[in-house]
Design goal:
Helices cover 48% and strands 21% of the residues. It contains 23 helices and 25 strands. Helix 15 (511-526) packs parallel to helix 17 (548-559). The radius of gyration is 34 Å and the shape is elongated. The strands form five sheets. An eight-stranded mixed β-barrel has the order 17-18-20-21-22-23-24-25, surrounded by five helices. A six-stranded antiparallel beta sheet has the order 3-2-1-6-5-4. The longest helix has 63 residues, at 4-66. The protein has four domains: 4-43 and 237-277; 60-233, PAS domain (Beta-Lactamase, 2-Layer Sandwich), CATH 3.30.450; 291-437, Alpha-Beta Plaits; 465-481 and 524-694, EAL domain (TIM Barrel, Alpha-Beta Barrel). It is α/β, with parallel strands linked by helices and 718 residues long.
Amino acid sequence: MINPTRRRLARLVLPVLLLFFVTIGIALYQTVSQVNALDAQRARAAMAVALDGLMASLADYAHDNAAWDDAARAVYAPAPDTRFIATTWGEATGEHVYADAFMIVDASGAVRSAYRDGLATAPALSPELRRTLHVLRTRALHSGQGAAALVRRDGWITLVGVAPVRPTSRALDGLVPAAGPSIIAFQRDLTARDAARIGTSLQLPGVSFAARPHGATSAPVRDVEGRVIAGVTWAPTYTGSIALGRALPVILIAGVLYLIAAGFAFNRGYASLRQLGWQAMADSLSKLPNRRALRWEMVRRADMKADIGLAIVDLDGFKRVNDSFGHETGDQLIRAVALILKQAAGNEAMAVRLSGDEFALLAHGPDAHDTIERVSQRLLAILTQPVMAFKRPVQVGASIGIVAARLGEISPSEAMRRADTAMYEAKKSGKMRIVWYCPELERDQTEVARLTAELRNAIEHRELVAMYQPMIDSRTGEVRAVEALLRWPSIEHGEISTREFISVADQAGLTVSIGALVLSQAAIDAAKWPDVRLSINLSRGQLRSPGFVEVVARQMAEAGVDPSRIDFELRETLFVENPDFAEEVARELRLLGVGLVLDNFGAGHASFATLDLAQFSKVKIDSTLVARAPSDERALVLLQSCVSYAHVHGARVVAQGVETFAQAELMRVAGCDEIQGWTYGRPIQADDVTALLSATKRPGVQDISCHNGAETKEKMPV
């Protein structure tokens, strides 16, 4: 007979034991499931990164082949160099190393040359391929780099990479047709071999391409518009199950020891997965996470439907540093900026180097909107101070575009594109600023593209005209000089703001063409006015263009103008940001015999000690200082100091932006030699200048405001 006490004990212990083993079973099941799910999640994210890497590689290959002077000559020649095209690109498709097919597509979408498997073909573009090429062309023109996407073709998953054919030398800019550049497009069919290579790199077995994704061990393949066109699958690895099998002997010996071993195996497996996923995710130069790491993180956040704030950061002035001080200084600057980004990000955001001088910041969480703006503002504040590179203080800024979004509602790629769009708007609108993405920016970019095309046409048909604003002797009232200013009286839209079209010209690389047009017209007009000097503004693009001084000398000779009657205006900022280059330019221009004018003197960019005024025949006082002087005692003292400093160095002083007679009188008393502004006349046409100079000159104010001029109060130089 069983002892009742034992029976009660058994009834108590057995349920406890059963609960213990059930708990262990549930814990084991959950552990295995979580490890297997984590493994599948890691594999999906890694697969997305691998596909992005294939596209980035083909995009870079297309860009390397398209940004090439020889390519531009071959493609844009009146009779395209078919031999060059065949040997350089077409025949290479027969080797199937980088691409299986190649084509050249002009701005209208017509295929001008095509090869597949090393042989010339005449392909009929499918609607999907034609649509893909159109979208990639737009992206490539927008970014200035190559672009790539995946497309389905005849049952194959095909990589398509494109880039616009453009010369690297500015002297060849005229080769590109006005309608827009052609693109070269490379196609590479993804095969079972490519799938095997991906599997090897990711340590995934049985990788293959399928008609569609299915199950946890698959990932979607999306086209350029984000539609699923295929899938890529692999065999499950069951990392958790393997770990359980290894720990099973321990489980049979003791349940408690098994729990400890299982926890250890889980932690070790998780660490291994993290290590595998983050391999090759760091930028070698900056030591920051790279583009792949950012993509990985955004894909992970997309699975969580997370709110993110993404900022694209593009350095202002980096190319100038590379050109002026060399690539070693540029590399040192990248490393210094990387440390600044980490400082600004702190524990609130992820700092990333994307490529070249482009970085990113990523914040997540419910307050991601506020966090990313706070971090971006902090970054701009730090960059107001010079950055040290090779013990050299270098001044750089940043243009920042920001987007706030919920991943899952939009893709990581779309979030990047939107932030990039906002960044370009920040750079266009003045740099060293933050711009939030909004749909209106897309329409603005469409307008910029339209205006760029119209501007190219206006330059070609010489619709841009030079107008002239007099500079009046402050004591005699005589016209001593005229300044050439550019105007665009558009046939379709009326007169377009100079600030607007000059901004467009800067982005499109048209400032050199515009400057040459103004210089040519102004030289012809100046020949009619032997008693006055002609003042012309020079852009950075003109100064950096090859053979600029020789072009100036030739145009002066053709117009019959003595170079000694010409003044070239150089901005004060040029001598602050790049003093060595500025001094060399000034020396070459003085040897030509022209006069030099320092523009915007007193704007606060430089101290007197940093500027050698002996090389300038004139200085022009900044218009903001002129406007402040009547009501601001400190501004008046600074203006008088500028005048005295200039006179000590033998330079005449011009007060610009004078809008009232009171300002004019104050400028005369302060010692300014010449006065320029609305008080003495708006910009006028060349014939009006001739009439003005022919009229009887009398002391005092000359009213020339009745002439047709630009309806703007601010000086807008070429």
